[in-house]
Structure formats: structure tokens, C-alpha cells
UniProtKB/TrEMBL annotation:
This is Uncharacterized protein.
């Protein structure tokens, strides 16, 4: 039981890390796009 729980938490942690990385990439690209839009606006 404990072993399964540990494996599950490791899997969850890696999934969580992956989703966090995706969020960071999306936020970075959004910020870059906004900067480009601002540059074009000026």
C-alpha cells in the first residue's frame, strides 16, 4: 500500500512539474508576444 502511494506521488509530482513547465512556457510566450505587440504599437 505504502509503496503504491509513493509511486503515485512520484508520478503526480512529475506530472505537476510538467504542467508547471508548460505554464511557464505559455506565460513566457505571452509576455514575448505582448512585448512584440507593444513594439509594433509604438
Amino acid at each position: 500500500m505504502h509503496k503504491v502511494k509513493k509511486r503515485f506521488s512520484e508520478k503526480y509530482r512529475s506530472q505537476h512539474f510538467f504542467s508547471t513547465q508548460i505554464k511557464i512556457i505559455i506565460i513566457d510566450s505571452l509576455i514575448c508576444n505582448q512585448t512584440v505587440v507593444l513594439v509594433y504599437a509604438f
